[in-house]
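Students often ask why we bother encoding 3D structure as a string. The short answer is that it lets us treat folding as translation between two languages. Here is a chain of 727 residues written in the first language.
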Amino acid sequence: MIPKISLFKDLSESELEALQDIAIKVEVRRGETLFNEGDQNWDLYIIESGEAEISVSDLTGTQKVISRLREGDFFGEMSLLDRTAPRSTTARVTRSGSLIRLPADKLGPLLDDPTPMSRSIHIKIMQALGRRLREVTQRAAAVLKSTEDVRGRTLTFVSAGNGCGKTTLATTIAHMLARECRRKVLFLDLDLHYADGTFLMGVYNQKSIVTLARDIRSLQTNTEQVQSHFTNVHDDLWILAAPNSIADAEQLHVEDLASIVGYCQKLFDYVIIDANEGINPTVLSAIESAEHTFFMLNTQDILSIKNAVRFFQLLTTIKFPENRISVMANKSRDDFKPEHLPKTRLRIVGCLPEFVDNSRKEGKTLYQIEPQNRFCIAVRGLIRSFLKEDFPTGNLQKAAPPRPNFAFKVEHANGNGSLKNHQNGDILFPKISPETLSILINELKLLLEEGMLPEAETEARKLLKFCHDSSELYQVFGEILVCRETSDEAIIVFRKSLELNPKNALTMGMLGHILGDHDQLSRAIQLMNEQCQGASRFADRWNDLGRLYGLAGNYDSAQKAFRKALELNPRFCDAQINLAVSLGETGNPAQALKELEKLENKGLRGHYLAGCFHQLQGSFAEAFAEFQKATIIRAEYHDLSSRLEHLSAYFSQMESLVQMHRGYLARHPDFPDLHFKLAELYIQMAKDDEALSELQEAIRLKPNYEEAKQKTLQLKKKKQTMTSSRC
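And here it is in the second language, the structure alphabet:
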């Protein structure tokens, strides 16, 4: 008699008998594989005696057991939901015994039969299956996570002194993540003495970070008690306030902060830490606790720059990973360029505009006063590009057509494509020849370069099912995961790559970079140097060496390596683009553009980078043109849409200025300076013909107008250069 398992507990005796008619009893032995992940097999199994285990493959292809089953348990039931999808798990016998198998080719018709009994069986099984599905999904998710629980992201905001805009940026990001991105956010005010963030958010609470620290020290804190210390600012925005008294500020210990952040990460999607100014143990603890730190620099205050240099020297001394901190230049005027500042240890990665800040006057955060001002618009761009968060929008970009699936191009081991079953139930998977694998890995790299990250990850996972012993495949998969901002998974994959080939210098270097291990990155560079000297005619090796130097911030050496690769292979597109990137990193966008112009076909990455370099040197029309070319290839690439959006807004303003000047000229047509100013606007919009016309009119009205003559010569020379380059 078929056992009345939980899946069948609601069935009547007659309904159980209907299942009994199709059931088959089978004897199984320890070690036998009943089905593999990916098999086209939809039978349902019930354990009458013996034991079995259910497992799935992790990122490295290692089997992870998610369930161990005994007498009376059942498995294979997920196939009842979809009788076309392949198996998502592997089932193996761990203790010999007997099973009852319900074949899919008989169970399916029974469930689909239009009779009342069949409909009743179907409904009852599906209801039980729904309960079972939730349990199994939760169990599998828990096993496959790289950590025991999901933790929110922690961002810390610091500065070397006051007046740098640290609290303004921190509160603005907190508001936007909660209100516009629908994330659950905690603003942690670590400005213990003055509590600016707490004040601007309008919070007055006797409970604070200090009272929470006391409770945690008591070792009797539960989640409800922790939450009682938070104050709700908005539906999804909470604040852990600074203490009301300056005297209480000294009661927060360094070790308290790590415990508090750990608790908060379990409860929120984001923990935003607004640290105190300057350097002290609590600030350093906040930096260490964060996934990433933003350092605010006041570009109009030379003392702020001087203090920042000393701050960076300390971070270097304690060997803090440079890839976990980003310097933001605040209060930047429109003509500000980072290269005009004195050299600092850490590179400036972004600029926030100067604006009129009335937050302290009105006692509210900037976002509450004016959420659409130029500073907030810039912060939205930062959230999109750095945190990879999306804002609700009705303007969806048209998706690029899908690339053909290429993971099926394999050569079977026996030469005729058939699969041979082993006696223990295992199957012989298709093998991939080294030549085919090389082609497929190059396809993955192409997807990666084109920014098709979801497609690249999907294809890499498919390919790993056929090939578990390629260090290079795991290396490329790791790069894909890094680009997808899943560093924890990337670390697992890179380690697997090194396990397969300890001399994979590129993997070693990228892993060292992610972990902030400078020594490991240095060893990788040394190893790659040795490999280049031993195989000096391989351009790929020199290109990889350049990439490692770039990760280490040694751009001069990176450029030499890329030039060596190009010397060996002048048509090496990747090395040419990497050389341009390294030149751009050293503040030479013009030289970077010259390198990109050498490419016969820039491709998506080349057009995008050319746009970025043009934008850096203020050639906005040229930048817009390059971004448009990149958009034609793939509109979703990186931050293309936001860059085009910003440039479109800029050109709209420029067009308004042009119309104003044309209005002035209509009233004062004989003013040469108006013609000259209009020509300058046209030049900024890359309308050279219109600019020449206005310059010629200015010279006609004022024959000794030297500035107009010089501009005319420059434009004509530019036009001749462009004509000759086309020829």
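Translate back mentally: Confidence is low (pLDDT under 50) at residues 136-148, 338-342, 394-429. Keep this in mind for the problem set.
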